[in-house]
Amino acid sequence: MPREIEKGDRARSLHAPNCHSAPDFNGRDRLLTPTETAKLLRLSPSWLAKARMKGDGPPFIKLGRCVRYDEGALFQWMKSRLRLSTSQL
Q1: What contacts 64, CB < 8 A, 6 or more positions away?
Q2: How far apart are alpha carbons 80 and 11 in whole angstroms?
Q3: Measuring CA to CA, how many Å separate 47 from each of 6, 50, 70?
Q4: What are the φ/ψ torsions at residue 7 (nearest 5 degrees)?
Q5: In sequence order, what are the beta bridge partners of 31?
Q6: What angle separates helix 45-54 from helix 34-41, to the nearest 10 degrees?
Q7: pLDDT tens by residue, 52-80
Q8: What's this model's pTM, rounded to 2 decimal places?
Q9: Is the dihedral of CA 65, 37, 72, 22 positive or negative?
């Protein structure tokens, strides 16, 4: 059984990180999983997957098989999509 370390309210394993863990870089922008990103943007994870395939979603980082979203880049992407009217592209 893997040993656990308490960090805040969550326990994390001492084993190598996997695709389900998102590290915090001590004050720097965090790397979010697709599930965390979907919750933040209030979109579905499948929308994010389709947007990655089409190339019109938020910028993402591919680390091996893992997909991550930089928190700061997500906020920049959202700002770039602000519109004043539905006629704006």
Answers
A1: 19
A2: 36
A3: 34, 5, 17
A4: -140, 105
A5: 70
A6: 100
A7: 999 999 999 999 999 999 999 999 999 99
A8: 0.69
A9: negative
